[in-house]
Design goal:
The complex is a heterodimer of chains A (198) and B (168).
Chain A: H1 10-29, H2 36-49, E1 53-54, E2 61-62, H3 66-73, H4 77-92, H5 100-123, H6 127-156, H7 158-170, H8 172-192
Helix pairs in contact in A: 1-4, 1-5, 2-3, 2-4, 3-5, 3-6, 4-5, 5-6, 6-7, 6-8
Chain B: H1 2-12, E1 22-29, E2 32-39, E3 49-53, E4 59-64, E5 70-74, E6 81-86, E7 92-97, H2 102-106, H3 112-137, H4 141-167
Antiparallel strand pairs in B: 1-2, 2-5, 3-4, 3-6, 6-7
Chain lengths: 198, 168
Amino acid sequence: MHISEGVLSGPLLLGGALLSAGGIALGLRDTKTPQLPKVAILSSGFFVASLIHIPIGPTSTHLILNGLMGLLLGLKAFPAIFVALLFQALLFQFGGLTTIGVNTFNMATPAVLSYYLFRNLLKKENKTLVFFGGALGGGLSVLLGTLLTSFVLFLTGESFRALAITFFLMYFPVALIEALIIGFIVSYLKKVKPEILE
Amino acid sequence: MKGLLLAFLLGLLPALSEAHKVNLFAVREGDTVKGECYFADGSPCKKAKVEIYNEKDEKVGESLTDERGLFYFKTEETGKLKLVALAGPSHMAQYEVEAFQEAERDQIPPHEISNKAIEEKLQRLENEIRDLRKKMDRLTFRDILGGIGYIFGLWGIINLLLRRKNAS
């Protein structure tokens, strides 16, 4: 889910950049050095996940995994997602350097929200609850991220309105797939390394 | 944690080459413009809208790609043309087509036969260039691994900076 260069107007780009900068600053302040390997691994996980193509609809959709970032990193999801998007823009021209603020905000905000909504579920001993915490967080993050992206496209102008709606519908199946994936990932982590979910 | 992520990533590697940057490329032949639109993995953008702008940035037309990602249109404009392909909401690509060369119109083939041979050769060259272009735009495994390396490197630097700050 990358908005590419040249689509959005100046004020939207600036707004996105400022909001993301705030998020990144908060995230970095929240980061303690022992946690950095975790952040780096998840950052590169996010970087690679976007390259996994899911054949739905006329353009290509891909995994996002912003939910996993949020659930495991909390506020640190902001800098982690920013770094991943930065290199996607630099190396693959996915998204773009001017839109990186908007893209970071769109992906990281739902992730952080999911963290605050579902972190208590992840701390439960009951396996089903943990699975559902992960699945709900994962699914919701994708849906909200898509909603934000569609909304930004919607604000951009007439010609993008119909597309914004198709875009939203296209990512519904992705949200389902990610809910399952992330549900299983957190269940597994609960079994082998429960302290990572604390 | 590390093992799990590694296993997860390795399991997904076969699907990795697919990606979604859009590429656009077109050439002018007299009053027709032929072009092609494809994703980073070389697969065609089917039924993508291609908007045509003239030098003053005014929209002068529109075209649609076919099943193979190809499109062509005729135009009266003689200046440079800017093409913008919209393959879905957030994916777009731009390409500039050279201005019309007046000389082209006067090129009446002196010898029909030799012209045909040249055209064939040109066609082959054109195809080759197109394939090369596609290969250049394609994501490779090396790019992906390199990206992961860069990310770890950057976090390493952040680590250093945070440590220094904590120490002081």
